[in-house]
Amino acid sequence: MSRRPPHVLITGGSRGIGLAIAQLFAKNAYRCTLIARSENTLKSAISTLQPLPTIPSTATQETEPEEEHGYSFLKLESPTQEADSNSLDQGSSTPDTSSAASHAAFQHSYIQGDVAKGTYFWGSQFGDRLPRPTKTTPHHLSRIDVLVNCAGVSQSTLFIKTREEDIDNIVNTNLSAMMIGTRFLFRHGYLQGASEPKQKGDKSSPVIINISSLLGLSGGHGAVAYAASKAGVLGFTRALASEYASHRVRVNAIVPGYVTSDMTKALNEEQLRQRIPLGRFGTPEEIAQAALFLAQNEYAHNCVVNLDGGLSAV
């Protein structure tokens, strides 16, 4: 048999913080599925991930994994009946060892699409690429152990000059898409907690890690919509942590300060560094280390981890 590697799904995983998280998780033998809008950047991102070790399976595989876009995935039949929207566990529990799936299927993959499209993306594009688990369909490929909500867009415009469509785009991408996507994954069995409150079972539990921003705590000049959306991420994290704790689903958030990335290129780094007690921007890799800690520490729940070089203290 081949042991199923833990599966991490990362929105906004093709660059910046999301890519750094994927790279670190891949080094730690997680199977990564990345979501982003650009297929070219997704292909490039996948090529930087450390491949998973190939562990031969003794099981007979009737359906050969199909090669597409440079990675393997196993074709599963999509269910004709929609999963129970009120169920946290869409079937009997399945151990981490699988005789139904070949080791070749457990490789890094990507799904191209825009999470800001909400239900359309998750119900169509996502569901077509990662089939919904059911009681009769093995979920070795579809089950998600760690969800990292990292997709986001930034803004640098005075509020009075901000267009309504820009506000909609920022709030939809940074907050609404996060809530709609997470709800979809719960409803359709990708994220499986205990079906009954405080049910005993496997020690491992699904983990959700939401990426917020220091501006969500402190606000910022020229970033009203962005700050509001990131503050909403923290509210979403706290409330979800309370609602799903008894079902053994851990929910945490990371609050980065200024991090070297495409989103901060336009900022005056020299001027900002003078305000940061540690005197520098953070790196995506430092944010990734916090994400890995939150994923692996079984007692980490309802945590909000500030990584801002001390800026929130001044």
From TrEMBL:
Protein family: Belongs to the short-chain dehydrogenases/reductases (SDR) family.
Statement: the UniProt record of this protein carries the keyword Ligase: no
GO molecular function, one term: oxidoreductase activity, acting on the CH-OH group of donors, NAD or NADP as acceptor
Protein name (record): 3-oxoacyl-reductase
Bias-annotated ranges (Polar residues): 79-97
Species of origin: Setomelanomma holmii
Any Pfam family matching the protein: adh_short_C2
GO biological process: fatty acid biosynthetic process
Keyword NADP: yes
Region ranges (Disordered): 79-101
